[in-house]
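Weekly structure sync, notes
Attendees: PL (lead), two postdocs, one rotation student
Agenda item 3: pending single-chain targets
PL asked that the sequence for the first pending target be pasted directly into the notes so everyone works from the same version. It is reproduced below exactly as submitted, 372 residues in total.
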Amino acid sequence: MSKVYFASARIKKWKYADSMPGKLENLLREINLLRYFEKDEWVAVKTHLGSEGAHRIVRPVFLRKVIDALKGAGAKPFITDTVRIKGLDYLEVANHNGINHLSVGSPVVLADGLYGNDNIMVKAGEILGEIAVSSLIHDVPAMVVCSHVKGHIQAGYGGAIKNVAMGGVSSSHRHCGWKCGRGAMHTIGEGKLMWDAEKCELCLQCVEICPLEAIKFEGEIFGYSENGCWRCGRCTRVCPGVALTLPGDDERFMKALAEAAKAVLGTFRPNKIIYINFLTEIQPECDCMPSADVPVIQDQGILISDDIVAVEQATIDILLKAKPLPQSAMDGLKIEDAADILFHLSQKPYKLQIEEAERLGLGSKDYELIEI
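Predicted structure, written out during the meeting:
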């Protein structure tokens, strides 16, 4: 049975050791980093750098605690993520969100290069076949996965599995494009973007939100670059009239997430990865959107484990006991007591990604929760 260490967000004593940063330090001591990382070993601290307007990411203060702990264990850590928008722009977004060399105490590096196509094809299972794993994550010997727990329009729940699967895989490949990258998870077949002219309000939000400027209107006619599109689905998310749609299959998507996670994790030797889930500022949407809504669930705390399935299951078990916050996206859903809040928001069978990850041998849903 895997061990999952937990520190509550509640503060009972007004002293540093009872603060969230202090508790994170205790968690990192408890798991004993020396069991996983060697002296002078490069360690990737994988997180999401956020977006311009989406500030509810893992806070720099927490990343700094992780970096300092790794340095204290003799390792050489750095912060990394794969390209979500144009590389230089993404680094600037990270800086605006407070993640830079000065704040976190380590370099901030793009895992798949400035153009997002520096990757290596890795076998990934029945659904995906092969997937483009970022070359840096493929090659680095060790990793700490820092995940901001939140909702997600497609995954329903975004935690460690999604962070590894979509964050460890490039958006596109140098030769086979989006079909070998995240787009393989997002869509079925060609995944063509469909436009309904009668529903379109010509608000142009789809044009504004596209990270690759792949959408344009000529007069009142919609157009987009099929080869340039990453199939991220942001345009469909913001369309007020539901004029834009992408084909999708929820079960296939959840299983594809687990397949991609296995492909990424399979590039590491055993016992070279730990997972930290931050159950804080739990908003209804992914951190790659251009804004962040208010949290739908109160801060719960921090979980840490060397088992990705166990830490995800423990996270879900905690969230299922939480009550929805008022004046949030939960208003109007008529939920007063503890319920499956993330499912009510998305209507996505998000637990499938955890079940499939266990089936693929990535870990176990059986765990022992140890509160620090």
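Discussion points:
- The two ends are 18 Å apart (CA to CA).
- The chain has two domains: 2-183+249-371, 192-245.
Action: rotation student to compare against the earlier draft before next sync.
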